Amino acid sequence: MKKNNPNRSGQNGELEANSQLSEFALRRRTFLQVVGTGVMITVAGPRARAQSGRGDTRNAVSARLFLNRDGTITALSGKVEEGQGPRAELTQAAAEELRVSASQIRLVMADTELVPDDGITAGSRTTPRNIPEMRQAAATARELLTELAARQWEVSPTALSVTEGVVRNSSTGQKVSYQDLAQSSELESLFENAVRTTTTVTPVADWKILGQSLPRPNARDLVTGAHQFPSDIRRPGMLYGKVLRPPSFGAPLESVDLSAAQAMDGVVVFQEGDFVGTAASTTHQAEEALKAIARTAKWKLPVHRATHETVYDHLREHARRSDGRVNGNGSVEEGMAASEKTLSETYTVAYIQHAPMEPRAAVAEWTDETLTVWAGCDGPFRAQNDLREAFGIPAGKVRVIIPDMGGGFGGKHSAEAAVEAARLAKAAGKPVSVRWTREEEFTWAYSRPASVIECKAGLDKSGHCIAWDFTNINAGGSAIDTPYSIANTQISSVGSSPPLRQGSYRCLGATANNFARESFMDELAAATEADPLEFRLAHLQNERLRAVLQEAAAKFKWTDRRKQLASDRGIGLACGTEKNSVVAACVEVLVDKNKGTFKVTEICEAFECGPILNPSNLLSQVHGCIIMGLGGALTEEMEFKDGSLLNAAFSRYRVPRFRDIPKIDVHFLENHSIPPAGGGETPIIAVAPAIGNAVFAATGIRLRAMPMRGLKGRGA
Amino acid sequence: MSETIRLVVNGTERTVQTVEQRRLLDVLREDLQLTGTKYGCGEGQCGACLVLLDGKPTRTCILPVSAAVGKEITTIEGLAKGNELDPVQEAFLEEGAMQCGYCTSGMILSASALLKENPHPSDEEIVSAMNGHICRCNGYPKVVGAIRRAAEKGRS
Description:
The complex is a heterodimer. By secondary structure, chain A is α+β, with helices and mostly antiparallel strands. Chain A contains 21 helices and 27 strands.
């Protein structure tokens, strides 16, 4: 039963020392054993839930929460902490509804043995989906505990209230703490009750813990170096593994000679088809062995025609226009025909990498045909499934733990390192840690898609846009629909034949779609000699979007500054909506016409995502989005040729640094009329177009390709 | 060939049996279990692997272990005095100056070296001293705020 004891996990120091968790785990183990006999199959635990796949209706309070005998509460979430803040916010959600302080909550995240399958951590879904689930479960638990006290006192539960973890009867003065209630023999059966949909959660106006800037609960371990990231996990007897990579994408291995590496003392060498790896007691030794192998490897090199320079032609050539998703209203043909003036432009967006500070990493350990993996990926159950399939073993024999990891930004949905570590660990008969190098992370992780966006629009006599034809090739349909009210639209997202492995990124295709739309809106405004702000407002009925646009413009003093435009200084704005949140940005750029360069000197952003769960965390996320957005807007681009990446290093792939940071001014609008929406993605989408629009305002030059490196060759 | 190498790490002499050309980063992490020092790029570009050598910020991903012999190595694990955090660590906590926290160790060590040399840096001096660190969460504004805050602690 070793497998069910999280104390062996070594996930972090806190876990090792956490007696509440071990008590919780003990009870859960009992529970799982019961499940194992089939007796309680209708209230199956998380393991059974994982086995049965997603969509299971497992809904007991105990799937989310457990009251420990010392009065603390163990809360469970399948979400992953990668710097975006769910550890604090889920803790706040549980504490708020249970009426306890946040320090009473012990949140266990992303351990397939213990937590429910909450899917991958993506799409800003934690806030709209998992926070409400946690609140509902915690509010139910509070009700159940109140009812338990009411039964003991033989009063109606409505006569009781809970503050600071104590149930009180104000008319009699009786009180009982959660800790006292935790000693009840009824406790376990109590928590097997289903989460009640009828229980009301605390209204925003009454929040005491949600809405506050609770620091990340394990922040101290981050400043002392004590926190163990996936790449820091160490197991007894563990080896360090390296994997042989082909010289170009998709190149099959023709032959390889392993003998030199095999002759090295203490080195494990493993080959299975194209998979070749080494493991040794130091990374250095594993690298030396891999180098000896790499020297002998012969590869069949496929022909790769697309380069980072020709990729846009390539994407257009292979665009599957016939099977694209088409949205729209009215008739674009008629709208164009009725237009006084029509415009047509094409925008491009380069392939970029997420480049999280911690590259992919995993430790795998086999014990009696069961596999435990500590991995840096954002979907513990997806990784469990990958491992189950890779080794043909049942899910019950695979446990995946995701220690709080070093960044993701949508780039860690896949668990390659986990499978690699498990293969090497199986061969070695010892735990193995595989940690990708920066070069591997740049080259072999999936990237954010490049895209080509074709825009056409028609303006009527009064300068109003009456026709809008928008096609995105390859970036996807995120935020593709225009928020502007236009009578005739045709909007489509079409696939192509991507030359690089591609996938999710912070806000997906919304960055590409918003760059093209907001740049093109600016072109339409310029074509009618309208103020870009006024032009947008004249087409905008979405009240939330209007509000952030007006807020950003007011704080930036848009109208005044627009009157003082100089040829070396330009201002631009952009807005957008995605994932039920709205954003607007105003930007100032300083242009050096002699050098053909420009610098972003100021960004003022207004953002609204409903009620704010944690203002400090939200501000961090908005900072992160704005500055990450600067990278994609100005400097980042994967350069590739012949199926190889040419700039797989921070020295050759320029990400934002301290010196690049302009004056940043963030304003939140708080809107209590909608449920909280995620805030870690949408603030990225207004940055690039606002910059391009500011450059245009100063120079008359329109930059239609991300990254917008400068003005050279553009008549500057 | 493997040799016996003596290092002084966080005030304690440590002996490791290793080949000399191994990176100090790997020896700290793999032999001495000091995993607070991180791998970020392997080319001295990002600062995740930064430690102090005789008080001087040094990137360990491009430094052979032999180069650290005879020098005082301070890693993030050695910055606090027992339970008492360094003012820079405290300031990072108060400012919430970390998102994923992977770059935090190196940033804190650089900042502490900066403040030792220049207790009251201007924002420009902070930016200049920290520019060799990459944070992909892009939490730079709060890091500058934390260093400013730590400097203010020194002033009071």
